[in-house]
Specification:
This protein is mostly helical. The chain is 83% helix and 0% strand. It has two helices and no strands. α1 packs antiparallel against α2. It starts with a helix and ends with a helix. The relative contact order is 0.21.
Length: 46
């Protein structure tokens, strides 16, 4: 579940980069959230 959400957030971030619409910091916030979620999952797995 967590990996799915992280992948979705990363895909949305990439789509935001290639699209002509600029949503400002929101796209980068999505990226940071996705990275934090993955790191938390990796740390909990250790």
């Amino acid at each position: 579940m967590l990996w799915t959400i992280a992948v979705i957030l990363l895909v949305l971030w990439v789509l935001g980069l290639v699209s002509s619409n600029t949503m400002g910091g929101f796209i980068h916030i999505l990226l940071v959230v996705a990275i934090v979620m993955v790191l938390v999952r990796i740390i909990q797995g250790l």
